[in-house]
Design a protein that fits this description.
The complex is a heterodimer.
Chain A (H helix, E strand, L loop, with lengths): L2 H33 L1 H28 L1 H4 L35 E4 L2 H4 L13 E4 L20 E4 L6 E3 L9 E5 L33 E2 L2 E2 L11 E4 L10 E5 L1 H9 L4 H24 L33 E3 L5 H5 L24 H7 L3 E5 L20 E3 L2 E4 L1 E5 L12 H4 L8 H5 L9 E2 L11 E7 L5 E4 L3
Parallel strand pairs in A: 3-8, 12-15
Antiparallel strand pairs in A: 1-2, 2-5, 3-4, 5-9, 6-7, 10-11, 11-14, 12-13, 14-16, 16-17
Chain B lengths: L5 H62 L28 E3 L2 H4 L22 E4 L16 H5 L10 E4 L16 E6 L1 E5 L29 E3 L14 E5 L1 H10 L5
Helix pairs in contact in B: 1-4
Classes of the chains: A alpha+beta, B alpha+beta.
């Protein structure tokens, strides 16, 4: 063997070993890289995303079934957060009531009330939740219906772009927060000496979980009634790692509108309103035989649309809102000497537990027109047949009064402020809109299938064989 | 030539040392890798189990949305639900047992039509319990076709169904969570995996796990326990659990037109 051959053999051996070392190190590094931070982060984000989505589904389910779980109420309400006032045993349970009316509140997501497992984000922290004052179930806002607007604006990472709230209708009803790992915050997770280790945490201080950036603080909800709360869905940084999921009013009512009993319920409000009118007249006829005169309507423009008292009848008003206060009608010349409100004993709107809450929350959707022959200042006794001095529906005569339920706001309509609510065109369509103010008391109203340009629902009051006003489906 | 002999010998010695170094390095690397790998495998099984449970719950809700009832548990023969009479009566042969994975159309299934948790053995079949209750005059209200609709959603208010507690200590057997924390008192159905210790002779027998029916017995009352994983003979807990409550169930059925 030559020296050269030996050297060559030596070199080959070293090369193999080096190769082995390099390959195994490379494989080890590859394995480590596979096992470590990046995919773990993605996994965490995925868990967080799922937890947020599940919480949102549960909130929608709560709001859509609120009238079933709370008999006599209208649907749409969200629970208060869990603020920890009930102690550890009450963990996950929504507060029975939180702050004042129309005040937004932030706290822990009430998972137990919602009927879900403790919802943890990818870092193992339980979720937080801010609810708009207009959507919480106690104390309740004045009008809970599909025009109720949220009080939460959410900004994008730049702190300028609005993700929610560019229009009042786009404001969020609630925001769910995933807090992520502590960023220097001193979270008090388990105080010694407490009887039982809590499921999530004993710490109910939002600032120890949620962060602020660009002067927008996710840990603070505005404590003023009716004021907007502003949150930020920022980018992850050393000082910010919250993740947000928004719940919009349209998503809540989208779920409610899918209920097969919802549209019939709303349509029945017009029927109930017509029945209350005829009931009022019937009671009056007990005092003055043959007097079948109907009340004046309330004006279209009201001071506010919240309390019953604003829905006050106005003299010589033959079309407008459905009236609650009837003092003007009573004074000129007195149909029904007893009732100064539309609170006839058997009006379902005033019977607690029946439709009272539906009236209270949906009253701005009800409109009413009265025939000239049956207005409070018409001749008495009232005619026993309804002719040219009466209203029509699609050309069908004989209507003493017509009640209209305005339906959902259509494209171009807005009801987000009191000013907008005072515009009839934001509620009614077609001839129902153009007939106003129905000065002759004999206008021809419009009934039709709902479409993208028309969705009023009508119910009529005609005369029965004996000349008594009776609520009937419009012809 | 003679003067050069030591060099090849020395070189061979160096090669051995180098080999030893390489082996040590490889051993160290493998050692440091295998521990995390083992825990990663465990974690993946836990994750897979959680995923299976979520899929099972979704399938359960989809079943309710399509049929207007929840399925009965499967028996020991196969992964099909077992009714004594029929779905119109809703009389399950048992109200706890295996998840009827074949009835729900889940996949993948084992040869007998059951779903298994991440540990994948025979004894790792997913379990399922559904509440046997009479609500609004409807017997077997959850498992009878149209039972929930006939009772009406408001009839379910203030009812207690299956309890899920965070500990088996302090529960009032057959009744409620007693001094243990109540995670829910209105679970209509509970789906759980018994985890790795299902295979062991004493598996699933800690106070907490004994509340969840498992291969070694377990209490078949309406009390279940769900809490974070823990080891140790007395405190061992490796079950994973999800549950379904009325609001979530009702909302799915509403969206599908089964309710109200």
């Amino acid at each position: 063997m030559t020296d050269r051959q030996r050297r060559a053999g030596r070199e080959e051996g070293i090369a193999l070993l080096t190769l082995l070392a390099v390959v195994s190190l490379g494989a080890a590094l590859a394995l480590l890289a596979m096992a470590s931070p990046q995919p773990l982060d993605l996994k965490r984000e995925e868990i967080t995303g799922k937890a947020l989505a599940k919480a949102k589904d549960a909130l929608i389910a709560y709001a859509a079934t609120y009238a079933d779980s709370h008999i006599g109420q209208v649907p749409g309400y969200l629970p208060c957060p869990d603020l920890g006032t009930a102690g550890i045993g009450g963990e996950g349970t929504a507060e029975a009531t939180c702050a004042g009316a129309n005040v937004s509140v932030i706290g822990r997501l009430p998972w137990k009330t919602l009927g879900i497992e403790p919802p943890r984000d990818g870092s193992g922290e339980c979720l937080w939740y801010a609810v708009s004052g207009t959507f919480k179930n106690s104390p309740k806002t004045e009008l809970m219906n599909w025009d109720t607007i949220g009080q939460i604006e959410v900004y994008g990472p730049d702190g300028v772009t609005l993700l929610a709230g560019s229009q009042p209708e786009n404001r969020a009803a609630a925001v769910i927060f995933a807090p992520g790992v502590a960023l220097g915050q001193d979270r008090q997770d388990d105080n010694p000496g407490t009887p039982q280790k809590p499921i999530c945490s004993e710490d109910y201080t939002p600032a120890r979980f949620l962060e602020a950036v660009d002067a927008l603080n996710n840990a603070v909800a505005n404590g003023t009634a009716g004021a907007l709360s502003r949150f930020i869905a920022g980018d992850k940084s050393n000082g910010f790692n919250d993740r947000l999921l928004l719940l919009m009013p349209s998503e809540i009512f989208g779920a409610i509108e899918k209920r097969s009993d919802f549209a019939p319920k709303l349509a029945s409000l017009a029927q109930t309103a017509a029945q209350c009118l005829t009931q009022y007249v019937r009671e009056n006829a007990n005092y003055a035989a043959g007097d079948h005169r109907m009340p004046w309507t309330a004006p279209v423009v009201l001071t506010a649309y919240t309390a019953d008292g604003y829905f006050d009848d106005a003299a010589n008003s033959l079309s407008g809102r459905y009236p609650f206060q009837l003092d003007t009608t009573k004074a000129t010349p007195v149909p029904n000497p007893l009732a100064s409100t539309l609170a006839g004993a058997s009006c379902a709107f005033r019977t607690s537990g029946a439709d009272e809450n539906w009236w209270d929350n949906w009253k701005d959707h009800l409109f009413y027109a009265v025939a000239g022959d049956f207005k409070p200042s018409a001749s008495n006794p009232s005619p026993v047949t309804c002719g040219s001095g009466c209203l029509q529906v699609n050309g069908n005569p004989g209507q003493v009064a017509i009640v209209m339920f305005s339906g959902k706001r259509l494209a171009g309509q807005t009801r987000s402020s009191d000013v907008a609510k005072g515009t009839l065109a934001n509620y009614l369509e077609g001839r129902n809109l153009t007939n106003h103010p129905n000065a002759g008391g004999n206008s021809n109203y419009e009934k039709g299938a709902p479409s993208t340009t028309f969705n009023d629902v009508l119910y009529c009051a005609g005369l029965d064989g004996a000349g008594n006003p009776t609520a009937v489906a419009c012809p | 030539m003679i003067s050069r002999r030591p060099h090849p010998l020395a070189a061979r010695g160096f090669t051995l040392v180098e080999m030893a170094v390489v082996l040590v390095v490889v051993a160290l690397v493998l050692g440091s890798l295998l521990v995390p790998l083992a825990s990663q495998v465990e974690q993946r099984r836990i994750d897979n189990t959680a995923q299976t449970l979520e899929q099972a719950r979704d399938a359960l809700l989809a079943f309710a949305a399509a049929r207007g009832r929840l399925p009965c548990p499967a028996g020991t023969a196969n992964g099909q639900e077992v009714l004594t009479t029929n779905a119109a009566a809703g009389d399950c042969a048992n109200f706890w047992g295996y998840l009827p994975a074949a009835t729900l159309g889940l996949s993948p299934l084992d040869a007998d039509g059951y779903a298994r948790d991440g540990w994948g053995l025979d004894q790792n079949r997913i379990r399922y319990a559904v509440r046997n209750a009479t609500v609004g005059g409807q017997t077997f209200v959850f498992t009878k076709t149209g039972g929930i609709k006939a009772a009406g959603m408001p009839a379910f208010n203030s009812w207690q169904f299956l309890y899920v507690c965070n500990s088996g200590s302090g529960v009032t057997a057959g009744s409620d969570c007693g001094s243990a924390f109540t995670l829910t008192s209105e679970a209509v159905a509970v789906i759980w995996a018994v985890g790795p210790n299902a295979a062991l002779p004493m598996g699933g027998a800690s106070t907490d796990e004994a509340e969840n029916p498992n291969p070694n017995g377990g209490s078949a009352d309406r009390i279940f326990v769900s809490r974070p994983r823990a080891t140790g003979t007395a405190a061992e807990y490796d079950d994973q659990m999800v549950w379904v409550t009325p609001p979530i169930l009702f909302q799915r059925m509403i969206a599908a037109g089964q309710l109200p």
